[in-house]
Amino acid sequence: MATRKRLTPEESRMLALQAARALLIETGPQSVTLKAVAQRIGRTHANLLHHFGSASGLQKALAAHLAETVCETIKEAVRASRAGLGHPREVVDLAFDAFDKEGAGALAGWMLLTGNEDALDPIVETIHQLVDEIAPEEAETHDDVMRIHEETLSLVLLALGDALMGAALAKSLGLPRDAARRRAETMLVRSLEAFQQA
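Structure (tokenized):
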């Protein structure tokens, strides 16, 4: 009889989050349940209940996991862009892909529809931390910080909206599919130019 490898609590939790992320991308947020994740990783429902407390807890942990990994990647891209090693479009693509291809937009929409709004807190908090960490590097005044916060808000809302209905809306308006990304890129380029001129 084969025995399962004994995992540490952290390894078990990470395995569950990776499975939840795969389910989110493959079949959508409605499939991110304790039962589905448990089946995928060969664990019991009770085991996942122990780690996350509920399906809502699993979704909140998944949101935090997505936010942390995505924001770390965006932070690296922002720094590369500032060093002249990258382009603002890379930052835009990372943000848009996080909400679209990585499923954060669908997860956010699902959590709002199911009344699990506090599960969005990790995403909001992680983005805020990212901005607060990056902003002092280029912001000299309170107005600079506020402008960076406004641009972050615009970028995230564009990425979220694009993930939820960008394809249909762009098609309806006769615009190319990447119209929202191009708008976000223009916004970031203008922002960088304004900081360089100041």
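The mean pLDDT is 83. The longest helix spans residues 142-172.
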